[in-house]
Design a protein that fits this description.
Blueprint (H helix, E strand, L loop, with lengths): L2 E4 L5 H4 L4 E3 L3 E5 L7 E5 L5 E7 L5 E7 L8 H18 L7 E6 L8 E6 L2 E6 L2 H5 L1 H12 L3 E6 L4 H4 L4 E7 L5 E6 L2 E6 L13 H9 L5 E5 L5 H8 L4 E6 L2 H13 L7 E5 L2 H10 L4 E6 L11 H18 E11 L6 H15 L3 E8 L17 E7 L1
Parallel strand pairs: 1-4, 9-10, 14-15, 14-17, 15-16, 17-18
Antiparallel strand pairs: 1-3, 2-6, 4-5, 5-6, 7-8, 8-9, 10-11, 12-13, 18-20, 19-20
Bound molecules: S-adenosyl-L-homocysteine.
């Protein structure tokens, strides 16, 4: 047996079912575990804690698969975990065959380092832990069996791979796909996804309920979608009768995809202005031009991956929120987001409150926004709550 013993008093987080064992907590390693091997973790007093995957390169040395001592970590184990995750979505979030849904959300589904998104009948899989990588083939086979998908495409190219000591892996893993470009439907709109080059798994599924919400607020409104990427929010706003939409992104590729989506969905392109620019600069230009809006969306990329970078990120969030609040007309609405793991919901709200104060506006909180529930947050794993948003109205 490959056995890990923790230092004294270092078992607490595991007893609370947080699935990570950091290198500093480890006292002894028995046997010679290789990357991805299953190890059994014990407290100093010999008490069993969990079975997990070993990664000698990562600071997170073990990620726990199971808390039960009699659990056997084999292909059957993964098939059962995957089946449970898929069944939850089928029951609580039924999604049309042509729709998009996250089937597996890593630690929060008991499968550390594994993400699986379904876009229509194609699955995109990402493995960012040594354990998930070790079991990749078994997982891909199970996914094909359980979902009847046409193909499984792998997109394991996240930044975190380097600290985990894992190779980038991208391409078709199972099934047939003529080209890595597929179309799925979200909130009645067609979304074309570039599986090979799109961000993350190709499309940000976590915002789909928030996009719908923004759509319902957009009728007759002048809308600003900052950090629009392929147009997630902008397209919903146009489809729901926005008077005008201004969409900003620094990526020309992203903006050409917005254009493609306008055509694909027969949306009124003449009401949509695409601006290729840095949002920080463009918001200042719009202010200097005395522009104003009824509805603004701020959905920036991760400014703070970790708590250590939170301070710099806080300045960034404050800056764009302050500028956006000033660009709103009286009665206008701001949907503002942070997907930074290092900035929690409390801190984000404080930053935005500070921005409102400095902007000299009274703002009301209408809703707290989260990722769609196919991105659940295990209560024992607060890191799972990466996306938080506020829907605000200014007086
Ligand atoms: N709202 C989008 C997702 C946004 S992802 C959706 O619903 O799908 C973040 C986007 O911000 C990316 O497209 C990236 O190109 C863009 N971006 C990052 N930094 C930027 C900056 N400083 N100015 C403008 N765009 C930026």
């Amino acid at each position: 047996m490959l056995k890990i013993t923790l230092k004294r008093d270092r078992e607490r987080s595991l007893l609370r079912r947080h699935p990570w064992v950091f290198s500093g907590a480890i006292d002894k390693v028995l046997g010679d575990p290789q990357v991805g091997d299953t190890v059994s973790v014990f407290a100093q007093d010999g008490r069993f804690l969990g079975h997990g995957a070993w990664n000698p390169v990562s600071n997170i040395r073990v990620r726990i698969w199971a808390w039960q001592e009699d659990a056997v970590i084999d292909a059957t184990f993964f098939e059962a975990r995957l089946a449970a995750a898929i069944a939850m979505r089928e029951r609580l979030l039924p999604t049309a065959p042509e729709g998009g849904v996250r089937l597996v959300h890593a630690e929060s589904d008991g499968l550390p380092g594994l993400i699986v998104d379904r876009f229509g009948d194609v699955l995109v899989m990402q493995t960012t832990s040594a354990g998930a990588r070790r079991w990749r083939d078994a997982i891909a086979d199970s996914l094909m069996r359980l979902t009847g998908a046409r193909a499984v495409y792998e997109r394991s190219d996240a930044d975190v791979l380097e600290v985990e000591g894992l190779e980038v892996a991208s391409g078709l893993l199972r099934g047939q796909l003529d080209e890595p470009r597929i179309t799925c439907v979200e909130n009645d709109l067609k979304v074309e996804i570039d599986l090979a080059h799109g961000h993350k798994t190709g499309h940000y599924l976590d915002q789909r309920e928030n996009r719908q919400l923004v759509g319902t607020l957009a009728r007759d409104a002048d809308v600003l979608d900052a950090f629009c990427y392929c147009g997630g929010f902008a397209l919903q706003a146009l489809a729901h009768g926005a008077r005008s939409v201004t969409a900003i992104d620094s990526s020309a590729t992203a903006l050409s995809q917005v254009q493609r989506h306008l055509e694909l969905n027969h949306l009124p392109g003449d009401r949509c202005t695409l601006i290729e620019d840095d949002v920080f600069k463009q918001l200042r230009k719009l202010r200097d031009q005395n522009k104003s809006f009824d509805l603004i969306v701020l959905d920036p990329p991760k400014f703070a991956p970790t708590a250590a970078t939170a301070e710099r990120a806080a300045r960034g969030y404050k800056d764009i929120n302050l500028l956006a609040l000033k660009l709103l007309r009286p009665g206008g609405v701001l949907a503002t987001f942070s997907c930074s793991g290092g900035v929690n919901a409390d801190l984000f709200r404080k930053i935005v409150a500070g921005a409102a104060l400095d902007a000299g506006v009274d703002a009301q909180l209408l809703r707290q926004l989260h990722a769609t529930p196919d991105h659940p947050i295990a209560l024992a794993f607060p890191e799972g709550e990466y996306l938080k948003g506020l829907l605000l109205r200014v007086a």
